Known about the structure:
single chain; Arc Repressor Mutant, subunit A; 9 helices; about 70% helix; about 0% strand
Amino acid sequence: MDSPAPLSLGTESAEEVTFSTPTRKWSLTREAFDRLLDSLADDRESAGTKYLELRGNLIRFFQWRGCPFPEDHADETVNRVAKRLAEGEEILNPSGYCIGVARLLVLEILKARARESLALGEMASANVEASEASSSETRIECLQECLHSLSDDNRHLILAYYQGDKGEKIKNRKNLTVRLGVPVNTLRMRALRLREKLQACVEDCVNT
């Protein structure tokens, strides 16, 4: 069995490649996947082995950086590289190129988190200000209604995650990781997804 392909950048730098968000997301085709395998090795058995090693390395790459859904991110990385190959780009070091694309994807994930930086407590505060300005409690009532639409476990998680001042909040989150038996990054992503769900629910409620 061939040794795992190193995930070091080669002479071509994937970090010089930008990926715009298309209107319709590109899907991996059989032809594109065949091109990817051909770039890894001359025979299909060796190519298949190297592909599995490459995907495993990518999964670990995203895990080490605390990214949610590392397997999905690994597949997205492979898809982007396969798309470049299908478009006729020559990639001499596919393993190194993949890690460059993975680094770009990590940056995209971090930017997405930054756009979602509004905490539930800040949202609630904004709701109070908006209510005072308009003499209406609609948004607060909607927030309460949306909280009650969550399961008991999820409602407890989101309230405990954002409860208290800075010191108490840190303590609450540590307690949650112990109670749920999950790492801090996993807890953070669960809270982010719940907050997004609440924000969407509140907007729908207000606009109904």
